[in-house]
Amino acid sequence: MKNAMDELIEKIKKLDNPTVIGLDPRYDMIPECIRKKYDETIEGACLAILEFNKALIDATYDIIPAVKPQIAFYEMFGIEGMKVFKETCDYAKKKGMCVIIDAKRGDIGSTAEGYSNAFIGKTPLGDKKESIFDADFVTVNPYLGSDGIKPFIKDCIEYGKGIFIILKTSNPSSGELQNVITENGEEIYKHMAKLINDWGKDLIGENGYSSVSVVVGATHPRELEELRELMPNAFFLIPGYGAQGGKAEDIALGFDKEGIGGIINASRSLMCAYKKYNEFEEKDYAMATRREAIRMRDELNSAIKNK
Amino acid sequence: MKNAMDELIEKIKKLDNPTVIGLDPRYDMIPECIRKKYDETIEGACLAILEFNKALIDATYDIIPAVKPQIAFYEMFGIEGMKVFKETCDYAKKKGMCVIIDAKRGDIGSTAEGYSNAFIGKTPLGDKKESIFDADFVTVNPYLGSDGIKPFIKDCIEYGKGIFIILKTSNPSSGELQNVITENGEEIYKHMAKLINDWGKDLIGENGYSSVSVVVGATHPRELEELRELMPNAFFLIPGYGAQGGKAEDIALGFDKEGIGGIINASRSLMCAYKKYNEFEEKDYAMATRREAIRMRDELNSAIKNK
Predict the structure, then answer these.
(1) Which of A183, A225, B89, B202 is most deeply packed, by most CB within 10 A?
(2) pTM for the full model?
(3) Strands in B44-127 per DSSP E
């Protein structure tokens, strides 16, 4: 059986690019030239989002190894939004990109199984099983402990998929729970890191990283460095670069000596690159995204390789 | 502006029933007499689920104040499943039931806003705003701290809705994080309880309970009692009764002197009541559910009022 993390790492190495494009399309960030083609209705907004997403995938699939659609931005448009979500995932996969669904689902037992079926496993139906969103990875929330994680791990093993468990997030209030000090004198996120090491220990691939890995924000460089040491087999999905303030040299601390160890997400800075580069007209938004993707790749590679 | 928790409590008082029916339909638990009407495909399964859900709502809406669809069981059927989810929410609302969407969403900033738009708020579209799933309550995960909660609270205020934040869950592994002892000698769930008290303090209604309340499992009676004391303004959504082992007299510990303070969920024991009562044929599954709903109501009321 293939190991999802090995496949992701091979894609990253092949394109020499440790980044992922986050597709979190807010209606008001879509270029006017797309929006004006459609009605300002739920259906129209969803058509605009789909056109935007496909154009961004077309402009980056040969240089960016993975795509991370944030499902909240599609759920907020209801059924029509979920159709676009599914089409976006399918389109990215068809173009050869690794699909990481950012859903941060967290529940227990048969409910966690349901989520896992939806995103990385298959839904049983009598004697058959049906693929639903069929991503390579999904993000998962650990608040309920191992009961909420094991159904996903079962599907990681059965279908060669992976999960990223949110561990230390990039937002200002992340410390309200994650940095509470335990009676053993360690932060909660370190306590969780040890649990996650254990959950992922049977899914370590040829590259030394587990298909059960973690989300660690770019906005906490010291913690990124500590976690790299504490979790040598965990691959890091790293949000918070760019718009949220995470710097390339800080992020480099999460990588190993071979320059491997994480994949860095950017959403807004890539999707809205057309607002940053004066030399592109709005209608050339996809070329602006490609330009920004190359700049981001080069900046991060330089920081990671020279650390 | 109405207070969502006051409305729920008024419904509970009117029907003299502190319970909620969880609609977590697994295909294999649907009566054969429904399943055989439809193809064994995603579409067929979804039609069977919808027929089952509507029949259970028809059989209980005049005795049970609220319905709690668990979204995972619909997401696992993809787009078709989400259509049935929406139709189930709408049908329950039309019948006058309070709709609590069990989604346990947890994210930050504009992503949390997206989820909140979907479930209790509205989705902005130019100058307009569109309702999507439009429930009365949604369950939320607190792992990311207040950044993940505040967008929901904003919609609770703006639209008169509510949230239940998962605090102490009913599953065996819940203690792996929730019962870790902090350096102050208290369990993590008590640390979280204090944060949640603060988040909910501006939404306390006439009945003394906040529209920002919590999920506390029935399987931890001592903790339920402690939390009732620590969180006098938090209403408890209580899973774990019946199938998971929570007993009526334990659950009563979560209620105040007036017999108010929580709503108890049952999913499997209500949905599959037709397997328990020999006097009902399978085709009379909805009457069996009604019978079990009355038994559950009476057992819980007796325990709560005699504690």
Answers:
(1) B89
(2) 0.98
(3) 66-69, 98-105, 122-125
pLDDT at residue B220 above 90?
no
Task: Output the six-digit token pair for A66.
Answer: 């993975």
d(CA A102, CA A94): 19
The percent of residues in chain B predicted with pLDDT above 70, rounded, is: 100
Residue A213 in contact with partner chain B when CB distance is under 8 A = no
Residue B246: per-residue pLDDT: 84
Q: Which two tokens stand for residue A32?
A: 């006017």
Chain B, nearest residue to A108 by Cα:
B171
Beta carbons of B177 and A183 less than 8 Å apart:
no
**Closest Cα in chain A, distance from residue B257 (Å):** 31
